[in-house]
Amino acid sequence: MRDAARLGVRKPLLARWLAPAGPAEGRRVTRAGADVLAVPGRYCVTYILVAPGGLGIVDAGSQADVPLILEAIEWLGRSPGDVRWVMPSHLHFDHVMGLDALARRLGAPIALGTVAHATVTGGRAPRFPAWPYLWRAVPTWPMQGMPFPPREDWREGLDFGFPWGRNRFRAPLLPPIAHGAPLPGFPGWRLWDGPGHADDAILLHHEEAGFLVCGDTVRNFFGGEWNPLLCDRVDERLTRALIRSLHVTAIFPGHGPIVEGSGVVERLRRLPPWMP
Ligand SMILES: [Zn+2]
């Protein structure tokens, strides 16, 4: 829906210059009972799953994104009380620093897959991509417009999604959602574990529409590519095989615009080692 572009979404100049795919867009995509609104935030893209019975929100990278997400809910003609849960695609700071603040503002619980739930309740920090991969994250920061954390994120958010963070969510947690389980209240959607970039990464998939909300497993800086930043190469290979086995017509990546079209998974690039 064209009008979604009117949400107060920033289009950072650097991202427009540097990322070949361009910045993420505020966009609503609907097909075969699936309905997703993309809301580009300060670091990552927030996705709002829309169902007759409520809304589900995936990722909130910064506390500065909270007003924009509230605006998006209003734009959908819904109210904050319609939000059934808020969920991180994985527990990395650029996807979770605003999550607890958003959940508490909405009065919504936090939904997690089994690995993230064990991490959060066990007080363990998430594993980060190993050093040989980590340099590749540096050039991608200017491709996102060089976002600097605002004061709100420093104040308490740095507990979330960093190697030293304990991810102490103050909003209530729902029971963990198992690998392959339907998303309660969202007909047609299932959660799949998708480790590789992060141990706790999850994928949300709508079989009939072929929609895949995939966090950082796929990025779109260069037209749609498998994320080369990895925690675990073996897990990532299995996750790629899982995604190839699914019906996918549109990929909603953690960073960059939505990737669509026939053979969308086959068209995803594997970047050579010298590319970020
Ligand atoms: Zn990310």
Layout: helices, strands, pairs:
Blueprint (H helix, E strand, L loop, with lengths): L12 H6 L8 E5 L2 E7 L4 E7 L2 E5 L7 H10 L7 E5 L5 H4 L2 H8 L7 H9 L8 H4 L2 H7 L7 H5 L33 E5 L8 E5 L4 E3 L4 E2 L5 E2 L6 H12 L5 E3 L6 E2 L16
Parallel strand pairs: 4-5, 8-11
Antiparallel strand pairs: 1-2, 2-3, 3-4, 6-7, 7-8, 9-10, 11-12
The site of zinc ion has 7 residues, from helix 3.
Main-sheet strand order equals 1-2-3-4-5
Q: Can you tell me the CATH superfamily?
A: Ribonuclease Z/Hydroxyacylglutathione hydrolase-like
Low-confidence parts lasting 5 or more residues at pLDDT below 50? Answer: none
Small-molecule binders: zinc ion
- Computed CA radius of gyration, to the nearest angstrom: 17 Å
Helix percent reads 10-25%
Measured between the Cα atoms of the first and last residue, the distance is 32 Å
Which fold name fills CATH's third level, the topology? Answer: Metallo-beta-lactamase, Chain A
N-to-C SSE string, H for helix and E for strand: HEEEEHEHHHHHHEEEEEHEE
**CATH class (first level) name:** Alpha Beta
User: Which CATH architecture is right?
Assistant: 4-Layer Sandwich
Shape estimate: globular
Q: Would you report the number of β strands?
A: 12
Q: Estimate the mean pLDDT confidence.
A: 90
